[in-house]
Amino acid sequence: APAPARREETPAQAQAAAAASPAAKPASPPPPPVPPATPRPSPARSGAPRSPAPPSDPVWVDALGGWLRRLLFEGNVPVKIGVLVLFAGVAAALKYAADAGWVRFPIELRLAGIALAALAGLVWGWRERHARPAFGLSLQGGAIGVLLLVVFASYRLYALLPAGGAFGLVLLLVTGAAALAVLQNAVWLALLGLIGGYLAPVLISTGSGNHVALFSYYALLNAAVFGIAWLRAWRALNLVGFAFTFAVGTLWGIEYYRPEHYATVQPFLILFVAFYIAIAVLHAIRGRRPLVDGTLVFGTPLLGFPLQAALLSDDRMGLAFSALALALVYTGLALWLRTRRGLEVLWQSFAILALGFATLAVPLAFSARATSATWALEGAALIWLGLRQSRRLPQAIGWGLQALAAGAFMLSLGEHGWQAEPGDWAVVNGQTLGLLLLALSGFAIALTYERHAGGRVPVWTGFLLGLAWWGVAGLREIDTVAYADRTVVEVLGFAIVTLLLALLARLALSWPRPGWIALLVALAGPPLVLAMVLDDLPLLALPQAGLWALWTASMLAALALLREPAQRGLSLAHIGLFWTLALWLGFGLSRLAGDAELGSGWQLLAGALPLILLLLGSWRRPDLVAWPLAERFPHYRLRWILPAAILLAGLWLLSLTDRGDPAPLPFLPLLNPLELAQLVLLLLAWRAADETVDAGPLRALLALAGLLWLSVAGLRGAHWLGGAPWSPELMFDPVAQATLSVLWSLAGVIAWVAGSKRRDWPLWLVGAVLMGVVLAKLVIVDRQYMGDLAGIVSFLAVGGLLVLVGRIAPTPPRNAEGETA
Fold it and tell me: How far apart are CA 129 and CA 192, in angstroms?
């Protein structure tokens, strides 16, 4: 019989049947699942420690580290430092032992022991000079230093040596140090001995002023310097000897020199000058680098000749002959060295010095005032000639003559003084005419370099030199002819004259450089206004008002003339004009209001009015206010508007501290001139916030300022109407506190209600926070005034306002922002 057809089984039924039939062969187990590949943890997510990359040090750290390594590890620096540390340690130990009473040896034995130890160190250092050169030299230097200190202490501190003996020992030590230095080619050892030798007369001085012994001793030291210079190329040693010789000689001359010393001092000065001229020549002949030691070549005459002038004092002819003698010496050296190959720079330097001293010799017999002008014009002519011939030497001589002209002018001040002499006319006098010639030479140099494309540095140097001499001439005239209380007025007049002459020179010479003077005059405007205010001068009265009007007209003309060709810095001059007008008119109007006995509120408003009008005009109508640079003004207007707005904001805050006296009008809250002006400024600032990129933060700040303005207005009302004092005591007045509570509550309620009606969550939150502040104030501050009517009113008003707002807008605005919050 055929088997019945099987029904199709579901997977669940098949699985159940297999489980119920034990005879069924179990199916082979499925292959184990392959675990997914575990991703390798990235270094950022792995917890395994990772060696950080070494930080890269900045360049200056590398430089500092290299310097420290060189200091600590190159040479035998530890020995050098160790010697110094030992000095300090031994000295401290001896002092401690002496103070504790442990050492009772006589001072002679102590010093002798130290000297013997130093001598032992010196011998040890000498013996180690080949095996350990750095160690040996350090030890020798330390030993010589200790011996010099022992000699100094024996003479000055304990009087165990006479002056002659001390000098002899110092000279012996210095000579020994020089010999050891030459034998071992150790420059620093020679420097140590030489510095000790030069300092010995200062440290071991009897105060007798025996200059013959002092200068004879220095002559021996300089002879040693010359001898070492013959054998070794140690420029540092030459410079140390040069510096000490002329420095100590100058100090001695200031303290002790008298005319009767001339015969015994003059030979030494000649000898010292000859020493260092010879050392400079020897340095170059030996072919040492640099070939020309500029410090010695030019420093020797520049220091020696003023000392010669001090020796001769009033003997102008003697000084002229001294200059002529130096000119002859340098001429002979130049002629001698000219035949030697490779010494061109040196003989040319000597030739320049010869020319300079020859030039100096002539006018020494005449007035220094005339000499300065002559040299300045001569220098300008030499510079012009050098540029025409493309030669540098005449230019260098010309600049040198400018420097000599300045020195001659300083000498003329000692000869004639600064003040005008009897019979001198204004401007047309020797002192001023000489200064004007100096200024003319400086401007001529600048113009010459500008015409010949000589570079910015010489052009600006000449221009600033001429401007400086021009300024000195003006200040001299002002100082000699000005009235006692009108000095600033004359300075303003001089600035106007300077500006007009600069414009004339720019037009007549087609030279743009004088246009910079307009910038200087514009920037000088605000300081001059403040100086007049400090001098208590009325700015809107004559002659001040007339001069400031002329200054303004001159500046406007300058701005118009300097447009083409465009003057650099013209925008700064324009901004300087704005600031000057704001300060001049502001301080002037404020003083007028005070003189008219108007209240402080009117005075503050009058003082700020010019700044407000200029700021508002440059913001809204720059075509009128920014003339004659209206077309360029938008490119730099923020440089004026932003600082002016900051200053106006500062003035606004400062005006909050004023009591706002509206005299002769009665005080009306919010309707007095000061508070109305403050409110208008707030509204203008709110309007200006629309033009900013992000007005939100600025408007929040202005809202806080509005609350502050409302609070101060309420305090003024408490002062004027409630009799509260306008002082810090005002904050303890119950009427003032109640006024603040009511005003803050009103502001909070308005913000609360407006935020709720407009569905503006931030505004509603501001009102809520402000009401919270008021409630806290009631609990902390106002409750102590509950016995007063003002305190009761404040509580009632705040409570009533809270009830009102609870009725109108009890809950925050229901919008997405509010729900999220």
Answer: 17
